[in-house]
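Translate structure to sequence.
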């Protein structure tokens, strides 16, 4: 089984959390639906088979991420990466886009154009799709998957002071398509 994409996604989620919250030398946990895990490993496993696959993944990624544990949750699994793994991720480079993106979005009074300029700084191949679905205002992603493969659902809400507050969720393409936005 190929766990490369699962490990990358887990690493990306850890790094995103570290950017938002700061690095603390502690374990981190993430909830994954069974469907999302299947997308990430390109399989179609039931819960019992996924448990076996995650045991295998834990062994194969141990050198980099340290001890990985998991437990079943309602519709998937909670995966916990040890403090050794979160320290490893903290030492990695190559997260310039997500770092600048998160640091821009967290600022008060930024504009949609400010956010789009971050995307444009990292690629000339940015796709922006306006959405009127009640969930978010636009979908933004890198058409060629570089610097990342995620689809960013960006919402803009006017604050009481007249400024715009921008929030986002990011998904792998398969999960986004499954949601049916």
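Result:
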């Amino acid at each position: 089984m190929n766990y490369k994409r699962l490990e990358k996604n887990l690493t990306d989620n850890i790094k995103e959390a570290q950017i938002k919250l700061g690095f603390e030398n502690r374990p981190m946990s993430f909830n994954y639906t069974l469907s999302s895990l299947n997308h990430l490993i390109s399989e179609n496993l039931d819960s019992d088979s996924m448990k076996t696959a995650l045991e295998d993944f834990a062994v194969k990624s141990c050198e980099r991420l340290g001890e990985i544990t998991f437990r079943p949750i309602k519709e998937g699994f909670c995966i916990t990466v040890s403090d050794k793994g979160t320290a490893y991720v903290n030492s990695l480079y190559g997260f310039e886009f997500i770092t600048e993106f998160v640091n821009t979005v967290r600022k008060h009074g930024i504009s949609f154009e400010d956010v789009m300029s971050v995307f444009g700084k990292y690629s000339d191949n940015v796709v922006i799709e306006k959405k009127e679905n009640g969930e978010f205002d636009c979908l933004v992603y890198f058409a060629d998957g570089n610097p990342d493969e995620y689809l960013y659902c960006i919402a803009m809400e006017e604050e009481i002071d007249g400024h715009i507050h921008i929030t986002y969720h990011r998904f792998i393409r398969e999960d986004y398509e499954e949601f049916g936005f």
